[in-house]
From TrEMBL:
Domain (HTH cro/C1-type): residue spans on this chain: 43-97
This protein's name: HTH cro/C1-type domain-containing protein
CDD domains per the UniProt record, alphabetical: HTH_XRE
Pfam family, one: HTH_3
Signal peptide coordinates: none
Coiled coil: none
Superkingdom: Bacteria
Length: 148
């Protein structure tokens, strides 16, 4: 098993690659992620975590209850405008909802964030230790001078 770094939206994750066996087309299809299903699952989990009903959210988002139900079940593709409206009705930022979707898709694709900095990165980029905090005497102006 070989691990390969993959960067998506500025976040590096590790993907496990099986170099000994060629992946079968069927296994790729079985693992294919349907984005509308992931979006629907996340929307439903947010709504249920808030204790809200479909009727309540559909009214707030100005979308029919049936259509919202179909979006949550992954049967309808929601436009970006509709997703923004649903998120507003749920009082959740669109970016937060999409972040949860991205995490679910990454897991489904076999990507994960490592718990530690891999040794090859430590050797290449330094020791990998990030300080717990920025000293109070390190002002914004000093940071701006340091970063150029």
């Amino acid at each position: 098993m070989v691990r390969q770094p993959v960067t998506v939206n500025g976040v590096t994750r590790w993907k496990d690659l099986d170099v000994d066996a060629a992946p079968a087309a069927e296994s790729k299809e079985a693992k294919a992620v349907v984005l509308r299903q992931e979006i629907g699952d996340v929307l439903r989990s947010i709504r249920q975590a808030e204790g809200r009903t479909l009727r309540d959210v559909s009214h707030g988002a100005r979308v029919s209850l049936g259509y919202l139900s179909e979006v949550e079940r992954g049967q309808k593709e929601a436009s970006s405008e509709l997703l923004a409206s649903i998120c507003a009705a749920l009082d959740v930022p669109l970016s937060a909802m999409l972040g949860q979707v991205a995490e679910r898709v990454a897991v489904a694709e076999g990507l994960h964030v490592p718990d530690t900095v891999p040794t090859e990165f430590q050797r290449e980029f330094g020791h990998g230790v990030v300080p717990d905090g920025i000293p109070e005497e390190f002002t914004h102006e000093e940071f701006a001078r340091t970063c150029g």
